[in-house]
Fold this protein.
Amino acid sequence: MKAAFIAHTGAPGVIVHGDLPDPVPGPRQVLVRVRAAAINPIDTYVRAGAVAMPLQFPFVVGCDLAGEVVAVGAEVEGMRAGMRVWGSNQGLLGRQGTCAELAAVDDCWLYPTPDGVSDRDAAAAALVAITAHLGLVDNAALAAGETIFVNGGSGGVGTAVVQIARALGGRVLASAGTPHKREAVCRLGAEAAFDYRRPDLVAAVQQSAPNGVHVYWETQREPAFDQAVAMLADGGRIVVMAGRDARPAFPVGPFYVKGCRLCGFAMFKADSRRQAAAAVDINRWLSRGQLRVPIDRVLPLSATAEAHAMQEANTIARSGALSGKIIIEP
């Protein structure tokens, strides 16, 4: 099979597009013909060696996939050849990745793709929608009628948070860096979107939510805790899911006086049962058109190194060049 793989960690240029043996599924694995894979920031961190993971070289990059079942292991139940599936959590914790023509995936990490949902849309939603669900439902416990502020609502996770919060009955406010991105966030369901650079951002959000927001979701790698706590209502919750090297100041006094909570999590540490439960809701929202993660561009498998370079520039250098996910089609 053709695959995008590395022989050692390093810059995007270490990614090789070439031939590898077809994977053979184990007893509880499913062999999937990959029709679409999505690029995520975590993919670039693993490839660069910035996040330590057990890697078996040659190592295929990529977390997300959507495609069709080719074969199933002897102990797999509920899946059959020809079935369309999507999933995430590959390329992590010793598992091989998804930027290849074929992938052998443990059956617990795969979910049926709803009729009418394209492989591109399923792959684009995979990691970011599961992340949003885990944060909103398991951690922040967003309730219908509550207000959430999404700091960075136009990114991959941010767009999923905006839409899933709306599907849960929340009122959504968000920030984004350009007028075009703010308009896009509002089309996805935000009631209002603000320029995150404006000096009076807290005051502007307080005008829209005079009693404060119930949940503040931080997508950025450097959390703005003073800003977050100032926006929160009594009993509010902050969600963080990025910025492993960040060491920001924290306003302890205002935080505890308001009785707030800080929720941090990494989606790939959530067990397969929790993620499968999230997938049930995600499939329902995908089917109803309530969830569509924007796609910036679609590239061939041979351009995976280029895709990593673009994702890295957007995430770390904050180039602002991307307005959605990068999809790889083998």
